[in-house]
Structure formats: C-alpha cells, structure tokens
Amino acid sequence: MKPNMNQQEIAEKSSAILHQADKCARTLGIQIVEVSPGGAVVSMTVHADYANGHGYCQGGIITTLADTAFAHACNSHNEMNVAQGLSIEFVRSAKIGERLLATAVEQSNGKRTGVYQVLVTNSDDRIVAIFSGKSFSRNQAIFSD
Amino acid sequence: MKPNMNQQEIAEKSSAILHQADKCARTLGIQIVEVSPGGAVVSMTVHADYANGHGYCQGGIITTLADTAFAHACNSHNEMNVAQGLSIEFVRSAKIGERLLATAVEQSNGKRTGVYQVLVTNSDDRIVAIFSGKSFSRNQAIFSD
Amino acid sequence: MKPNMNQQEIAEKSSAILHQADKCARTLGIQIVEVSPGGAVVSMTVHADYANGHGYCQGGIITTLADTAFAHACNSHNEMNVAQGLSIEFVRSAKIGERLLATAVEQSNGKRTGVYQVLVTNSDDRIVAIFSGKSFSRNQAIFSD
Amino acid sequence: MKPNMNQQEIAEKSSAILHQADKCARTLGIQIVEVSPGGAVVSMTVHADYANGHGYCQGGIITTLADTAFAHACNSHNEMNVAQGLSIEFVRSAKIGERLLATAVEQSNGKRTGVYQVLVTNSDDRIVAIFSGKSFSRNQAIFSD
Question: What architecture is domain A7-137?
Fold first, then answer.
C-alpha cells in the first residue's frame, strides 16, 4: 500500500473495496455513511419486503444492517477480517419506512480477534438494537498498493 | 381455538399464519419444511444477491434464516412470541448456490421467556452456524378459533 | 418509599440492600465503588484461589465480578430485576494480584427487560472483558419505605 | 505424547493436568465427573457463600461451573485452548444446597476456534442454564509425553 496513506485513507479504501463486492448490502439498499479507523456508520430504510410475520422489520435484517457496519469497522485497517459470531438484543421494533442507522465502534482489536459494538438507532435517535460482533483476522491484506 | 386441535395441529396453524404474513421470508425464498410443537425446520438457497464483500453468504442472511426457524418454533404453541435477542456463531462459510437448512429446537419455555437453539447446516449436513434465540411472550394468542 | 428520595438516593439504598444480602460478593471480596441511577462500579482483587488451570483469573470469576456490577445497575431504580442471561468476551488475561474494576452502564430499560453493558478493566485501565447483561423485572419493589 | 494413547486416554490426561492446576475449581468445590474427547461433565453443590442478593446461586458462579466443563471439553484433545467468550441464559434459579451438573459437548472444532454447549441441570434433571463457549487454540500441546 502507498506508504503515504494515513489511517483514514486506509479505512476509506478498505471500505470502498468491501462495499464494491458486497452484493447483499446493495440488494438491501444499505448505504455507507462514513468510515474511520475502527469505526463505521451505515444506513438502511426498512422496505415493506423486510417485514416479518408481526409486521415489523425482521430481526435478521436488522442484524444484517448491524453486521455490515461491523464488517466495515473490522476491515478498516487493511487487514481482512471475517465475523466469527455476533449477538444482538432487540430493544425496539422498527417499522416499515423507517430509516435506520448502524454505528460501529471498535472495543478491542487483538492479534487475531476483535470485538465491535454496533448500535442501531431509528430516526428519533432511539436505540433499536444493541449488537456485538467478534472478528477473526485472516492475516491477509485487503489491498496491496 | 377449536378444543379438539392437538399440539401438532396448533403448531401447523400458527406457522401457516406467521408465514402468510412474513414478507421477509418470501423475499429471501425461505421455505417452511416442517413444524412441530417447539420445533421448526426451514430452508433457503443462497442467492448471488446474498453475497458479502468476501463472496460468501452474508452472516446476517444466515442469521435471518435461523431467526425464521426460531420464530416458527417459539410461535408454535399459539402464543405470540417475539425475539428479544439472539447470538450466532459462524462455523463454516456458505457458498452461493448452497441450500441451507435451519433446524430449531426448544430448550426452555417459561412463563414469559424461552430459549431456542437453531443449527444451520449445508447440503453435506455440516454445521454452518449455531444460533441461540431468546423469545418473549406477548401473552396473546396467534389465532382464536 | 419516602416521597422525597431522589434517583441517586434510591440507587444507593437499593444497592445497599442488595449488597447486604449478597454473600457471593463478600466471599469473593467484591466492593461496591459507586452506584448511580442505571450505573454501578465495583472492584475485586484477583486472589490466588481464583486461578484457572492456565494460571490466570478464571473467566467465570471475571463474569461474576461483571455480573455483580450489572446487578447493582439494573436494580438501581428500586425495581427488583434478575439476570435473564449474559454474554462476555475475554479480551485480556487477568493476573493473580491484579485489581479489576467493573463499570456497568444502562443501554436500555424497558417495561420488563433491560440491557446493560459492563466493561472490566485492569489497573492499567485496559479492557479485560466486555460483558452484556439482559435483565428481567419482577414487577416488585426492592424496598417500600 | 505416547504414540499408543487413544483419544479417551488423551482426554483424561489433559483433564487431570488442567484440574491439578485449577485452584478456582477446588476453591468452589467443583468435581470432574467424567471427560471424553470433546466432552466433560462436572458437578458442584451450591454453598451458602455463593448466594446472590436475591438468595439464589449467583449467576456468575453458575457460569464458572459451566465454564469449567467447557474448559475440560475444549482442552480434551491435548491442544491448549482458552475461552474467547461465552454466553449463558439462566432458565431456572438454583437454590443453596442443590447439586448442579454441567455437561459440555463439542459443537464445532476448527483450526483455531471451537464452539461448545454446556447444559447446567439440577438434581431433578431440569435445566438451570444454557451456556455456549467459544474457544481459541494456542497451537500448543498440554503435555508432551
């Protein structure tokens, strides 16, 4: 990688490469709002197609949104990371049409594993879900120049 | 509800009502393979649109599949339950085109809360993910006759 | 309860009652450093008796410390809450003799359930463990006057 | 290690070495009931000193019991493993004087990480807690001859 890239530029380039290949995010209409070293903010509007049997946004789709923020955060250091596992607590239902924001922060980043928290909030800035993701490093760069 | 319905009939009717309203499951092509009192098996083929930035099925989509099995299992007693939270460990990547099966079993079903384990397996019958869902009862029937 | 008690006084009284009955905390030498509405800080020194087979503080004992902070935080509103479940990620080993601090914050507090995050740190202020606790309200006061 | 040791003998020797060094298990009175390749059963009687502020066995102590079963299971292949993290759902309170059993089974065992489920049951064989542990391999043997 260019020796003169700073951490923010590395985060942005890693994120752009990841998003370019991420069909799932595009399928769901997930947008990358911002990335930073160890952090990411992504957003999605709850489409009617995402409704579960109770009429609210399916929890797995909220998880996918949070997981996407997590992916951009844990891959922001130009080191390829995959999700080992995650947990999520659903605090408030998300209605069809609501725009959700998922904000990921790095809580720990060790040699091989990392821990990231993601808060999913609605347009009233109230918490919809609290997510924790565990990453595992592939010991491999995302880009090389 | 009809006094002469048995537990299996109740599970099937609850599941049919849930699936009928579940746009997300239909959007993703999730099929209900079978339901039983406290249990459910659902399946999904990994569409190219579900690929993450690394080219494998996005973990949130695997979570959605498992969450759907969990929803049918925890709503199988004609008592409306919602997901409080879940955790999932990703054991093996799922490739585009693979058919995944999610099998939910009830581990605990208390007055207000329940715990369900879901195993997601691939066509080789190998574990893709291990999921645990926590349900919360709305103290409300799904159907009344 | 006295009509003139403020939220901080309620938190302190709830915590004092809880700690008074908490034999486990006393057995392990856990001290309550401070409580606030929705929050708590507790501490413990890692005794040689808490070592696991690898020579570091057993993860379950770190969990007990975090769980104690969680208990004081989720019981700080004079409403009896019990732990439904918890998850914890171990980030760094804790050595015998180290003094650990567990700091709990309320992330969500609904009608019946709440979510609390606890960070366990060592004397260098580095994260040892990241804990998430889910509470369930008994709909019952802790004290009545 | 002796070329003629079978998997069961390896599990028993790994467990004996681990238990010998495990001061925490001895402090709490945890006994190793049996080990097998990938599995372990351990037991503990709830001492009055383990009571929380509500008068039942502190959840962290139940976690420590489950974590001990997990440790013996994930270290049963003569490969040193540590806990990365765990989650536990508390299903039923454990009273003072009750004898608890924790039974660990291996759900996944990859190159570096593994997933183990532990069920904690009481003397009526009812589930007290459902635990999931994530292991990380140190790529190091427990014993060499």
Answer: Roll (3.10)
